[in-house]
Amino acid sequence: MLLRMSTLLLKTLREEPADAEVPSHRLLVRAGFVRRAAPGGYTWLPLGKLVLDRVTEVVRDEMAAAGGQEVSFPALLPREPFDTSGRWTEYGDLLLTLQDRRGADYLLAPTHEEMFTLLVQDMTSSYRDLPLLLFQVQTKFRDEARPRGGLLRGREFLMKDAYSFDLDDAGLTSAYDRMRTAYQQIFRRLGVEHTIVAAVSGAMGGSASEEFLAPAEVGEDTFVGCTACDYAANTEAVVTPAPPARPVTAPAAAVHDTPGTPTIATLVELANERRLGGRDDWAASDTLKNVVVVVHHPGRTDEIVAIGVPGDREVDLKRLDAALAPATATLFDDFAVRPDLVKGYLGPQGLPIRYLADPRVAPGTAWLTGANQAGRHATDVVAGRDFVPDGAIEAAEVRAGDTCPACGGGTLTIRRGIEIGHIFQLGRRYTDAFRVDVLGADGKPVRPTMGSYGIGLTRAVAVIAEQHHDERGLIWPDAVAPADVHIVAAGRDGQIEAALSLGATLVRAGVRVLVDDRPNVSAGVKFTDSELIGIPRSVVVGRRLMEGYAELRNRRTGDRQELPLVDIPGVIMGRLG
RNA sequence: CGGGAUGUGGCGCAGCUUGGUCAGCGCACCGGUUUCGGGAACCGGGGGCCGCGGGUUCGAAUCCCGCCAUCCCGACCA
């Protein structure tokens, strides 16, 4: 491959686009790899397309090596399969739907569980046909409320999605482990630093689930690590260690007048002032905060639910949603229509609505909480005695310094990350929905169990740019660079001809070459463009051409080396391995 | 969906408060001359229903109303 910049569709920008915020977005636009074409949609320009294709090839290669077979489905799908799986409603507003001329419902697929399941249903009939690992590389659509970060979150993006079909749990576990290993290999080849964290499966359904997160300030996921062990989890998946049940030692609950204390802070202050229960050391963590939310069950009517968390913690709506999936929750604030819910003075005792409590609200624990009367709170309200939650829920915020749920010894640290891959064991949710069975060796039907494995390819390009750049521009890893060598002709005394000739020599040896053969462009411009574009090594054919020398540069280290022109191909071949 | 901001040649912006030589600047682009290893200089040019619709006015990029779009924060989000 030899690309000539004199004819390449490329325009680098000296100034940053006004709408670009994150580094990857700024650089990819400035360097002429992509440009915005629609809200949440980007055009891949020649250089960007080369990178995207190389990323895709790495993924394909590793998927094939892991036994995957590539197929391709339409992106435009009819409604019926998604009705069968329930996702037409469960996926919510994020599903990009449309109608054809007859008014029939269609969607632009966000993922393809249904279609893969149907394909396997159609084409398999015996246990001998399994296991299967199928994948595709395809454009996905989501009606994102707010696309952001350039390529990081679009409404249309390229994704590799893969699905495994196995006869039993052991097969699923094996496929899952194989994918996990393949993903580590993929991200290693792509040069993407990442952490594997325990995750929740969300609207997809299923059980075991892990995310591959690229640590980054601009990331939208928050995850924890442990100071003592190797535990790592998305905050949505952090499980709170429940204290053991303890015997009830507290006296009977007592109601106190606590006027003007609708918040935890005001309550604690007043409780200490008045020495409620004979104490003046009340802390927010002694109180039980009860937050009312509206739970939206897909396809059913909304439900009003109270969530109880220790008063020193906020309810984390992301964690709450994850715990309620596929239902979602929003804060309830229409207390006018529910006079039986006393805002600011809610307690779990005798609440007229369903009550879900944080695991820390263990049987035997005593709390200072609302008395369900305006201006009154109750002390010594004991879980298991004065109230019994309708269930436990992981809704309280996770904080740095919390005890690690895995080892119990270390504490948690918190970081942000970009989700670049997600693997999980779906189980039989979809094979059940579509009643997929194959005949087992004993002649009885067996229902296959599935795994689902995704990598955001568009996003991967952005993450690579996010992790590999400096103040001058991009620095692509060898495996995905748009070219292996950037030859810069810095001069007009035959430098362009010499550069093209060197390029031709390298191309014959299988090297990908970009030549800056633009006439009448100053050397300075070519150097800055070269650094912005970020091809890992460049050859400057310049003023020492007459002596037969050129300069080899390393974009990452900045190293420069004057070499005889004739030696350059050999040196480059050596370094490319 | 809430909060904030912004819409003026391809890109980045000024002009709006105080309506009238305001349609302008930088980059990019075209022609010419010079320059040629770190975003060159000079000369000459082309390109904009000032987001859309309505209103006020003799006159609107500028004031008023409505709408749309984009970006940022939050909500939302495999």
Count of DSSP strands: 32
Query: What's the CATH superfamily of the largest domain, by name?
Result: Bira Bifunctional Protein, Domain 2
Let me know the largest β-sheet: 9 strands, mixed
Helix count from the secondary structure assignment: 13
Strand coverage percent: 25-35%
Q: Helix share of residues?
A: 10-25%
Choose one word for the global shape. globular
Specify the structural class: alpha+beta
The CATH C-level class name of the largest domain: Alpha Beta
Mean pLDDT equals 91
The end-to-end distance, rounded to whole angstroms, is 18 Å
Overall tally of structural domains:
3
Low-confidence stretches: none
Give me the CATH architecture of the largest domain, please. Answer: 2-Layer Sandwich
Q: What name does the CATH topology of the largest domain carry? A: BirA Bifunctional Protein, domain 2
Radius of gyration: 30 Å
Could you characterize the architecture of this molecule?
With 577 residues, this protein is an alpha+beta fold. The protein has three domains: 50-215 and 414-465, Bira Bifunctional Protein, Domain 2 (BirA Bifunctional Protein, domain 2, 2-Layer Sandwich); 254-392, YbaK/aminoacyl-tRNA synthetase-associated domain (YbaK protein); 483-576, Rossmann fold (3-Layer(aba) Sandwich), CATH 3.40.50. It has 13 helices and 32 strands. The strands form eight sheets. Strands 4, 8, 9, 10, 11, 12, 13, 22 and 25 form a nine-stranded mixed β-sheet that branches. A six-stranded mixed β-sheet has the order 1-29-28-30-31-32, sandwiched between helices. The longest helix is centred in the first third of the chain and has 22 residues, at 169-190. The protein is globular, with a radius of gyration of 30 Å. The structure holds one RNA strand of 78 nucleotides.
